[in-house]
Design goal:
homodimer; disordered N terminus; 4 strands; Glutaredoxin; alpha+beta; four-stranded mixed β-sheet; 239 residues; Glutathione S-transferase Yfyf (Class Pi), Chain A, domain 2; 2 domains
Chain lengths: 239, 239
């Protein structure tokens, strides 16, 4: 049985009797930041668990039973693990409709939201992986070096598009309000910083991002990243 | 202004007075097949436009005004282009709720649907690109060769997970019925054939796929791929 199936996972979650509680597994500085932002924007009650990705917390069996792909974020809801950033953001926006995190007045707007999420996660994320996760592609240092060059170049090219799209954005990149697309956009910004891309070259996008970072719920998400204790199954058992 | 914004595109669509008509731009054998399957499963009325991807139809200005990324599918709805397979499938399932193409009885099921779509489009699709679209990564033949090897290996490794997930599937990979996840799954199957992966190694998944291909609406989608005339703006102008 794969935890990707829509079934209760085998996490020791129900045992604790915290049915209905949301638990977010994240790594500081990862794409899971979008989920933290969305949860804070929705005013959600949730239990954050910070994995130390550099130490390999995402590869221990206890975490692989939550997300067999060994990636963050994972959101555990009533014993079911939701993974992949699109899945997690979909759940948060549906559970807290009053936060209007998805501009879902009609099917076209909903579809455009997923179009953007997909653009971010398949295109930008792939280029980031080329630059920062070369080991996923090859063991050969020369191959990795070549991938770094093309990944960085292609990432910047996509940012030009994003900057154009941001040109007439007001409160959000799509729709009238801050949405899950804006939450994920902050991760794209952080990726570009990791890739040493000169973000000043993209003024419209930079304006959008600065406005978003100034929001109190984004500040709370940042604080959560740095103040949450490191998760470890042993802590859970003794809790 | 980017066509990724939720705005009417500048396609000559409204001029024709066909407001409300769905137009699907696809390439035979591409991931757009999932959109064709979903439209046929929903019993939708739509106008299919077949691009010849080998001839570069996706890069002519008339198509770039529909999808600036130059990729298929694109679904034009009331003058708005929806792109990215997740976006297109989201729209189709929302527009035809009676077809139950998204197992959306609750937010968890909806989220799991997007989790699967994301897994397919970011993970599998990236490996396919490594093998079949090496030019996106590097001009160096040695680099491309190395990417082919790792892409093919990683794709097969993901199929093991998919086969496990398919083990207790009945009518659909998730939920009780055929869903947009199953539509996209057929594209994953075709990709694995293009990559010469021995699909018999994945018996549960193969069973799921065979059952899906036997469905009349999937057969109609296949027929549509081969019988639709090649799209060209000139044909539209003279129509």
């Amino acid at each position: 049985m794969s935890p990707l199936k829509d079934r209760p996972s085998t996490v020791g979650y129900r045992l604790e009797g915290r049915i209905g509680v949301l638990e977010l597994y994240f790594g500081a500085g990862s794409s899971a930041f979008a989920a933290l932002v969305a949860l804070e924007a929705a005013g959600a009650e949730y239990v954050p668990h910070r994995l130390d990705l550099a130490a390999g917390d995402q590869r221990i069996p206890e975490y692989l039973s939550i997300n067999p792909l060994g990636r963050v974020p994972a959101l555990v809801v009533d014993g079911t693990s939701i993974t992949e950033i699109s899945g997690v953001l979909s759940y948060i926006s549906a559970r807290y409709p009053e936060a209007a995190l998805i501009p879902a007045r009609n099917p076209i707007e909903t579809a455009k939201t997923y179009e953007w999420l997909s653009w971010f996660s398949s295109t930008f994320h792939m280029y980031v992986a080329q630059v920062l996760r070369g080991e996923r592609f090859s063991d050969d240092p020369k191959v990795r070096e070549a991938l770094k060059v093309s990944g960085r170049r292609n990432f910047a090219a996509e940012l030009s598009r994003l900057d154009k799209a941001a040109e007439d954005a007001t409160n959000g990149l799509i729709g009238d309000n801050f949405s899950i697309v804006d939450a994920f956009n902050l991760v794209v910004w952080r990726w570009s910083e990791k890739l040493d891309i000169e973000t000043a070259t993209f003024p419209h996008w930079a304006r959008c991002v600065r406005a978003a970072f100034a929001r109190p719920f984004v500040q709370r998400a940042i604080a959560c990243e740095s103040t949450t204790e490191r998760w470890h199954p042993a802590h859970r058992a003794s809790a």
